[in-house]
Amino acid sequence: MSTPYYVPEQSVPLPPPDADVISTACDYCIVACGYKVYRWPVAGGRNGGPAADQNAFGEDFPVAPLGAWVAPNQHNIVLHNGEPHHVVIIPDKDTEFVNYSGNSSIRGGAIAQKVYNPQTPTRDRLKSPMVRMFGVLMPVTWDFALDIAAAVGNHVLEKHGTNAYGVKTFSYGYMENTYAITKYALRHVRTANFTFHDTPSDVSSTPGFRDAGFDNFGPSYDDWAEADTLMMCGTDPYESKTILFTDYIMPAIQGGQKAIFMLPRRTAGVAFAEKNGGLLLDIQPGTDLPVVLAIARVIVENGWQDDEWIKNWVNNKWESSSGFGQGTRNTPWQWRTTWGKFQTAGFEDWKEWLLAQDYAEPEKAAEIAQIDVQKIYTAAEWMAKPRADGTRPKTSIMIEKGFYWSNNTGNTQAISALGITVGAGGRPGQVIGRAGGHQRGGLRGGGYPRNKSPEKLPGRRRRAMDTDRYLMSGHTRLAHVIGTTWVQAMCGSQSLQAKFDELTTRNPHQVQSFEKQDIIDTLKRRADSGGMVVWNQDIYLVDPIGARYADIVFPASGWGEDTFTRANGERRLRLYPKFYDAPGEAKSDWWIIAQLAQKMGFEGFDWKDSNAVLEEGARHSRGSRKDFNMVLVAARREGKTLHEKMGEFGTNGIQGPVLMLEDGSLEGTKRLHDVNRVLPETGPAGANVFNKKLTHFNSQTGKCNIQKAPWDLFASYWNWLKPREDEIWISSGRINERWQSGYDDRRRPYIVQRWPENWIEIHPTVAAARGIESGDYVQVYSDRIPVQTDTIVGVEGSDFDFASLLKNGHIELTKASITAVAMVTPAVKENLGYMDFLHTSQPANALSGRVVDWISGNYNYKMGVGKVRKMGESPYKSQFRSMSFARRDIA
After folding, report:
1. In this structure, what DSSP letter does residue 408 have?
2. If pLDDT is split at 50, 70 and 90, which confidence band does 459 have?
3. pLDDT tens, residue by residue, 561-599
4. Distance between CA 66 and CA 69 in Å, rounded?
């Protein structure tokens, strides 16, 4: 309950003309703006001057607005080769792509404050390995910590089996790291107890896209700007992908683009769109599907569908069946059609199904979603009604987590069908895809061992393991957690935390010795007794996964501390070079994994540097959206390393998949599914791979599958969950000023001052009924958080339906409570409370049900309910130094 304050610096040094200049990209959101790092020694006081010939910018200071100005938050001091150096990190005003205007978000614009400096709040970075002895995490050597981890890890594998070794890791933390981690976990440990930071199971985030044949990140950023109508579902790009909005969508709206948002709250981006003639479909949580189908119904009833596109690019029944849902193959998606719930015989069959669904009638859909029915008709007209001259509007559809984490399978099936209907495929301004959250740093070093998963579904098919439920059942004996909070990030987080407590701190086998063998023996006994040991890799000590539960903590290095590669939301690959020394003994995640793997007796982990990891992994990118194998081929022809060749692209990067032309030059891919792209008739030359998605869709025939989206598969959960009596919906998401869990933002005084605690937006009607005003502390609580307790074997098609799970005793109701500061605003739906999704001390996900989408295995994170009551006034209510309660939905 502190009231922090921020006193900005009054001056910053300018880089001298001979400063080192390093091209990089932002570490935060999916957009990945280009930046330049200016670095020069502190010793000697050789700073730049105000005249153009005295500084690295070649500018006379003061500069014109939006010139090469350096803000206090864009300067820091780091160690480089052991010596203090100034760094100034500003947007690259010379870049041709992404942030082509030299603009930045509030997050990226302050990224210089991310780097380690012991004179700033980053002083608490992890600097040495630690082992918990006598209840305290104590610094030790790398060999000491790794010897213990290897011995205990091998013991768990030998005595309890591979699935007893759980790995929970980030999916985005650079390709060098994710390749090493997945090679270790999936190819060598061979555990099915594996998943990424944002899901309990290693499954597709957008199953409907996968079934339809759409890649999540097929569009280019230009496509969003070139659409005549842009529908944005479950996201406001301004809040979470700022430059995508300000530099692409915002100018398009000003130029006449019709913007449609589907959200349960009005945000700054929505307000701007509405001010310029846009539309908000202000649904209540979880009701996207009926509204999407109702829009589609209006379109087909009026004959506005894109018939030519459908004729050329949509599968009929035979084409769909030729590679869809046949037999008992254990593939991630084919089994979904077993009950005839999704597959169609083509567009006319889908249309017949659509017109038979009462919830797809506009009036019924509007009633379910509690919106004005006219908005459905308006959206349909904007998206598909031909102009007087017969030309069609170019329509694109963007989705993100608020949409696909509400009714995961149903929503993504419905929106895919709507996209197909309006001709949103692989054409300029006519695309469908995700907006994205974090950057795309995944590179698979091994395949998921689906045959080892205990998740048995009807029809003898398997789904990837639900790692949370497996842990709750006491089967995880070793949890290796890499770069994620895990507990607070998952649904029903407080009951998950209680289980962690039971398996770790409350287990009788606690280390009470400083002898290495005693520590090993104690941790083995804990695993053998049904408890759990925990390894944690991170840049900071995270509570509770590291601070309370970890037996070993490995200090990781991050952005700017090693050379890495990653792609953004339009598959633009860039190099993120090392420009300063990591703190203390912190090492890159690939290095930590390599040392552990070698001590466990695994071969193939003797990499000398991060470039060696990427060069090994390059062939595993072949055929993927980020395929960069031909960059390696070009590098070797030129006698360069892969990192050196990647660095030549600067902040412009190159869009994957990358092809090599006959003359040896490299060509990127602006958009996937590009039906107008012409590839050489002679086929791929040399090591080139012509991925089907370059010019077609990801199905057996290369056409789209148009799928049904039954509301009844989700309705039993939604109807049971929806607010009762004095409950309201509780949902959450990102906000512009903070990134993810705030791991960096909690160390930025200005952001801490702006958002010192979690908050909840509630409607004035709800607030008045409870005597709540802006600035009051409130308790948000519930005694009916549903938690699926068992891993069951599905026999009948309805066994995983929520009503069946509840009836058969597989759902436990738990309690949860968090506190927040009230923000009373009419911007939210009347029966909705909206919070920041990952304030780690006040996690909104505690109020979301831990019941997976029974088709995909993903959580519906945005679906929670709870009650709100006033606790008293917060200190922020009466002083104006911290927090603001002004409305955010202003333009």
Report:
1. H
2. low
3. 999 999 999 999 999 999 999 999 999 999 999 999 999
4. 7
Band (460; pLDDT cuts 50, 70, 90): low
* CA angle (243, 249, 252) in 5-degree steps: 135
Q: Is 683 exposed, middle or buried (0-12, 13-18, 19+ CB in 10 A)?
A: exposed
C-alpha distance from residue 362 to each of 372, 380, 397, 403, 834 (Å):
10, 11, 20, 19, 27
Per-residue DSSP letters for 441-489?
----SS---GGG--EEETTTEEE---HHHHHHTT--SEEEEES---TTT
Distance CA 836, CA 842 (A): 9
Beta-bridge mates of residue 666:
660
861 confidence band (pLDDT: 50, 70, 90): very high
Token reading at 267 = 């945000």
pTM: 0.97
Contact criterion met (CB below 8 Å) for 415 and 403:
yes
8 A C-beta contact, residue 126 and residue 482: no
For 268, residues 6+ apart whose C-beta sits below 8 A from its C-beta are 236, 238, 239, 736, 888, 889, 890, 891
pLDDT surpasses 50 at 330: no
Spatial separation of the C-alpha atoms in residues 487 and 483, rounded to whole Å: 12
Strands 130-133 and 136-139: antiparallel
pLDDT-derived band at 321, boundaries 50, 70, 90: confident
| pLDDT(326) > 50 | no
The Cα-based distances of 47 to 23, 39, 50, 175 in angstroms read 20, 11, 10, 36
The confidence band for 602, taking pLDDT boundaries of 50, 70 and 90, is very high
Q: Give the pair of three-digit tokens for residue 623.
A: 């055929």
Q: Which secondary-structure segment (H or E) carries 535?
A: strand 533-538
3-state secondary structure of 872: strand
Average pLDDT of the chain to the nearest whole number: 94
- Identify the three-state secondary structure at position 612: helix
Residue 877's closest CA among 759, 779, 743, 798? 759
Q: Which pLDDT tens digit goes with each residue over 510-556?
A: 999 999 999 999 999 999 999 999 999 999 999 999 999 999 999 99
Q: Which helix (H) or strand (E) holds 298?
A: helix 288-301
Contacts of 715 (CB under 8 A, 6+ apart): none
Strand partners, 828: 265
The full 3-state SS of 79-137, as one line of letters, equals EECCEEEEEEEEECCCCCCCCCCCCCCCCHHHHHHHCCCCCCHHHHCCCCCEEEECCEE
User: For residues 891 and 272, is the Cβ–Cβ distance under 8 A?
Assistant: yes
